[in-house]
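note to self: dont lose this again. the chain is below, predicted strucutre after it. 188 aa total, dont forget to put it in the shared folder this time
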Amino acid sequence: MESDGQMVRRALAGDAAAYGQLARRWAARVLAVCHARTGDRHAAEDLAQEALLRGLRALPTLAEPEKFGPWVIGIAVRTCLDWLKCPKRAEVSFDAGCADVADDRASSGDRREQAERLTREVERLPQPYREVLMPYYYQPDGCTYRDLAEQLGVSSATINARLTKARQMLRQRMMAEVDESNDDLRGS
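---
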């Protein structure tokens, strides 16, 4: 498999397909970062595309072609920050995008409801936890602690601690909701 650096050099030499390969390789991670930053799946999709386009335009400024991944992740973060700072941005309800997270094969409304509830709870996590949790689980081919540490500029131990804390927070929140539902049923 060709390295990121090799593809960057090909793209800079005029091979448009090389940047397309780079974009496909990093798209899921860029999307996960955008989703973690914005808390809005639809906006994240638009911002991920914008970040990859900004990456293409700025490719000649990349000093170390082998570091394309962390570089384009940085562009994604800045793209999201620009969007978040913009007073004219329209707020889009995340609830509109929750349905696609649920398991399509699930015939039961309970599974869909649980997936939607989990998605809402992930969106409520503080940013440092979202920004490790989402890329870690978003990646179809997986994302290692080392990958995340490099992308976010922290240690692998920090990634581990944040993932552990995020999972713990989600379990507590989901169990609290179940307990509240059971209390409501008993009180009726």
